[in-house]
Write a structure and sequence with these properties.
single chain, mainly beta, Immunoglobulin-like, 3-stranded antiparallel sheet, 3-stranded mixed sheet, 2 helices, signal, transport, transmembrane, metal ion binding, electron transfer activity
Length: 110
Amino acid sequence: MGCVHFFIFTLIAISSAFVAPALAKEFIVGDESGWTLNFDYQSWAMGKEFHVGDKLIFKYKQGYHNVFRVDGVGFKQCSTTASLGAVLASGNDIITLTTPPEGSGTMWSW
């Protein structure tokens, strides 16, 4: 079976590299659709600003999906070999943004 991957989010603008925790926001990836197949996550991310301290929440039916943090190379090669941490598979996974993106402002996950 071919690898299915999603473009999670494009950080369009980061107005501050450091945001006080009280100002941090939580984003449910995909809103009410959650983390699923056949969803346009690039459109979902359009117009949103993500800052250090914000939380990305991945909601899905446990056992049917998972989340890997990968770099751009891993994403483009559809590879988790150089995953940036353990696979997330709880069905309610939270990734806290701890650093601003490097270079283009794009971060990857699938």
